[in-house]
Write the structure tokens for this entry.
Amino acid sequence: MNIEKDIFKRGKIDFRKLLDYGFVRNENNYIYQKEFMKNFLACVTVDLNECVKGKVYDLKTGDEYTNFRIEDLIGFASIVRDKYITFLKDIANYVLLPECFLLEQSNRIANLILEKYQVQPEFLWEKDPHFGVFRNIYNQKWFGIIMNVDKSKIMPNLSGEIEILNLKLDDKVGESLKRRGIYPAYHMNKKSWVSIVLDDSLSDEEIMAYVQVSYSLVSQVQAWIIPANPLVYDIIREFKHTDVIRWHQNVHVKVGDYVYIYLTKPYQAILFECLVIEADIVDMNSCTGKSMKLQLKKCYDKNDFKMDKLKKYGLKSVRSARRISYELYLVLHS
């Protein structure tokens, strides 16, 4: 077992901190020695390529002690191994520049997600300490997870450790699987999720475009847009006299949802934000048989959210009630 590689693989070594820790520079290597358990000497060497090697010597005999590297240890050798691992982890905690993941692209993607969505990976499992989950900070839904797995999990007949990013793509799964570096999702619903290998098969920009799809899919909010014809119903005048109106209901809104009212010509803009305070009211006068009560929360200037701006958020027209995107909700609700 390569104990040193496993402990030092998740970060870059700060060579200045090696010297601060007590390492001694010797040509192209940094060397540190320490006695432990009275009868053993650990010797750790770091070269300029950040390759870490270690040896343990039995001070009684002067010979190198290797029994602790055997898999599935029990007894005295396992105690030596645990003490040696503790010693190495102390060095690693001091000299490593922290990186969450194993591969460079994994860390770049994690940084881009933090920059764009203000989301950091969460490491939730003791059994899989390097599985990093990305969750929407508003509704706590997962939109991605980076995992270190064996290639065989997604590539039959291959082996070796890789890192993958699982993303939710729903109806885009089929077309995405035609691309190099994208596979049916490991450990997730393969109809909705994919696994992207983080080995630069896809560029950071291409991966972030898929991240955007996944983020949008899990970020749907209970917010709706409904059209209103001011020539048929003068809602502007109505809201000057009251902040609660009754409206026919033809979508599955719930109490607490937000409804944005889009006025058709001559305005062609969203003018009101309302909160649903009562829903599914039996109403024989409504064309749908039910209505809802809306409480006015915010008024917009007629030039704030005209159709030209709404098109940037995927709205091409507003002919009937429909859910709005998370991105548009954030802009309207801010």
Remarks:
- The two ends are 54 Å apart (CA to CA).
- The first strand starts at residue 11 and ends at 13.
- Residues 105 and 280 are 49 Å apart (CA to CA).
